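chain below, 423 aa
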Amino acid sequence: MGLVVQKYGGSSVADAEGIKRVAKRIVDAKKNGHQVVVVVSAMGDTTDELIDLAGQVSPIPAGREFDMLLTAGERISMALLAMAIKNLGHEAQSFTGSQAGVITDSVHNKARIIDVTPGRIRTALDEGNIAIVAGFQGVSQDKKDITTLGRGGSDTTAVALAAALDAEVCEIYTDVDGVFTADPRVVKKAKKIDWISFEDMLELAASGSKVLLHRCVEYARRYNIPIHVRSSFSGLRGTWVSNEPQGAQKVEQAIISGVAHDTSEAKITVVGVPDKPGEAAAIFRAVADAEINIDMIVQNVSAAATGLTDISFTLPKAEGRKAIDALEKAKDAIGFDSLRYDDQIGKISLVGAGMKTNPGVTADFFRALSDAGVNIELISTSEIRISVVTRSDDVNEAVRAVHTAFGLDSDSDEAVVYGGTGR
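prediction:
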């Protein structure tokens, strides 16, 4: 039996009973002969509540102090979980991200992991203990300040530790039984996927699937760490995410892996851009200098009479104000007319490795949207994904229509969401 890294989300440790249930599962893994490292999120909606509290105190909290505040949630969880494990007769030690050796850059609120030096974790394991690590956090390499990794950062912490410790598997425990063909909160007949490749999971995660963060899957692929997504509320087998299928699973995937959606993005349209070389570069350099990631980009055909064009792109809503400010500052240098901002949009994506060798998938996708009365504003494609932007009010209906059109609806029991508020 080898080393296993387990990660438990906020809904799994939302209260004392949840923490005791998780502690029993961890102890069972230890009794089965595994060395166990556990990464834990803050309890329930603790992080959101801390964010709300910070907003009441300061409209723009200082990054360093904001990180110090947010990491408190995971420290509470790790200590309580260690206590619960000890109450079951097993030794456990809790560690903050910095104590666990999670080294990051200095970007507060969305730091990236540079290195993991898990010396203290190794020592705890060698002494026969269970190691409990606070997820979502680390320490900056240069200033030694506490940092946070952004939304879903605990998943990334878990995979990074699994890679550094050469673990057999990283088990991600959540409030659903695995990765589904769509969000079971939206599509009640969504099917659980037994195995999915890193590539398809990356596309689903990047397209809005919330069960795994894109950065987490990217890290796992880079270091070839198999991920097993499971529910902490049931004993069912979950979804394996890896390079190769696990066990007796089929080697050849289904044509379509799933339908993802995302309502956390906004659209900015730069109106009246001179249609000449360098203009698009200047627009996206201004956005990049503001450290903003963009998603979909569409440029309209230039109007012959004016020689002007419009460029639209999507980005996280949270970065909208910053992007507008950055572009306004560069307006004179770029020479565009105006900016339009729209945060009432949603993205629907169809993902599947078999799409590129199966003609008709694109036509069926757009037919399903048309039959559902959904109007399309932007389109983006890759070899294994088709994404469209539409009105946010149409997203749920569009997801259900596409899911049914591609035969993804389950004939058996409806998907179960065991906990969490979805906040």
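The first strand starts at residue 3 and ends at 8. The mean pLDDT is 91.
thats it, cya
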